[in-house]
Design goal:
With about 220 residues, this protein is an alpha+beta fold. Helix content is about 50%, strand content about 15%. It has a single domain, classed as Heat Shock Protein 90 (2-Layer Sandwich). The chain has a five-stranded antiparallel β-sheet with strand order 1-2-3-5-4. Helix 2 packs antiparallel against helix 3 and helix 3 runs antiparallel to helix 8.
Length: about 220
């Protein structure tokens, strides 16, 4: 039974996995396609798939960063070791050596979970991973989100906000700009950590005058 078939029976759905691969991509695309065909909002399929896929990649990468630091005996809470570790982590990703670390995700039970909740006013997508954002990272995430809110063009954001240590925050900017391109309020996207997990949430209104959970 596919993801969407399970979802239709209960309007709530969640699935957990340890690493991102093409099978996950295909399931996410089919899931989102079926939802927005059902709701008559086919124009949402491509941008929402890009948003959710990006959040899954980011969540997996956050977990991968934790096992990379552990394997290389680096203290992620030490500012000096964190900065140096990020440089090494980025080099590892650029060399596509991450497969050497993927088995450690399962060993350390570092998972990613995709959730969906379809109710009469909105469809809510969540991507959750059990690596809590540490204070060093939280400041950077907040700054990236704030900066992304000021842009309407991804290329301009990339040109002006390149971060040579940890990427350009393109994942967050992409979600914000895609939502804006769909005519939706970027405030419908939020990300934060609590109780040992990080949660990224996108709310897609199905009715006029929908009030996001943040504004409630």
């Amino acid at each position: 039974m596919g993801w969407f078939d399970q979802f239709k029976k209960q309007t709530r759905f969640h699935v957990r996995f340890f690493y991102h691969n093409e099978e996950v991509n295909e399931n996410i695309l089919e899931f989102i396609t079926q939802i927005f065909l059902e709701t008559g909002k086919e124009e949402y399929i491509d941008p929402l798939y890009s948003c959710v896929k990006e959040l899954v990649v980011n969540a997996t990468k956050a977990n991968l960063k934790r096992v990379f630091f552990l394997k290389n005996h680096l203290d992620i809470n030490n500012m000096g070791e964190y900065v140096n570790g990020l440089i090494l982590f980025k080099e590892m990703l650029e060399k596509s050596q991450y497969t050497e670390y993927e088995h450690l995700l399962k060993e350390h039970d570092l998972w990613v979970e995709f959730r969906a909740n379809w109710h009469k006013e909105a469809i809510v997508f969540e991507v959750i991973n059990n690596s809590e954002i540490i204070p060093i990272e939280e400041y950077r995430v907040r700054m990236k989100l704030k900066l992304a809110m000021e842009y309407t063009d991804l290329a301009q954001y990339y040109a002006e906000q390149v971060d040579t240590t940890e990427g350009a925050g393109l994942g967050i900017a992409l979600v914000v700009l895609l939502l804006r391109g769909m005519g939706l309020d970027p405030a419908l996207f939020r990300i934060g950590s609590k109780h040992g997990v990080t949660i990224a949430r996108i709310e897609i209104p199905l009715v006029e005058g929908y009030v996001s959970s943040r504004r409630k």
